[in-house]
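In response to reviewer comment 3 from the previous cycle, which asked for concrete evidence that the modeling workflow produces usable outputs, we include below a single protein chain processed end to end. The sequence was submitted unchanged, and the resulting structure tokens are shown without manual editing.
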Amino acid sequence: MTFDVFVDGSANLPKNLLNGIKVLPCDYLLNGQPRTYSGDIDSFDYHAYYEGLKNGDKIKTSLLNTALFLDYFTPIVEKERDIIYISMSSGISGTYNAAVAAAKEIMEEYEGSFVHIVDSMGCGFGNGILALKAAKLSSDGVDAREAARIVDEAVPHACQYFTVDDLNFLKNTGRVSGVTASIGTILNIKPILFGDKTGHIISCGKVRGRKNAITALAAKYRDKRMAGDDNIVCISHGDCIDEANELANLVKEINPKAEITICQHEPFSGAHVGPGMLAVFFWGKER
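The workflow returned the following structure tokens.
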């Protein structure tokens, strides 16, 4: 690889996709007790985690701080290696700004070094598919500055659409009002949400019932997907594997060549979307 690619645990990448991508840990509190998620999604007990959320467990997440980035980035730069880090959206976390501060400090101290921070404007596999692109560019011998330009330009095409089963988790993080959550729960309204071009989570539709929500996610893939050779599709779920498989089948009907990865949704952002979250990520014409 011509440069090193970093993500953090929110990128949701299973081991079989990492291919040399380095993963930074994410810290959170579970009922007031500190926990560290290393980014090993394959070993994450998602059933216990999401069952805990259903039963009232309280999760508090925090941004990755500048000191952590310095600890991980500095040894790489000292080996005269360049770095591209794919950050979770600046619209939902201060992590991006902390990483930018670390990159600035390192490049001022180490003359000629290059540390680039990509604002993914997303989270979960929204980070992950951008990291996969960066890692492919590195393995193909593209230099870090050119790769950074290419990945930055790819951000608006990293599509991410999702639905949630319980609007109260979004209410608790300020994404919807209490009144909206109450009415939505009573009427069985399921929102279709996405990460917009500014990196904020907004609604782009609502349907009644879970089946219709799954169909709506597949329709977003059908309408937005980018024609071409890149058939990567990632689906993440908050302990609802059967529905994830149902969504995958609908995607396959739309594009039989789709290369689908299904994975439990990581705990760091999973606390904000809750059990039953279901998402599809892919390369699209636009968000």
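Residues 175-184 have pLDDT under 50 and may be disordered. We consider this sufficient to address the reviewer's concern, and the full set will be provided in the supplementary archive.
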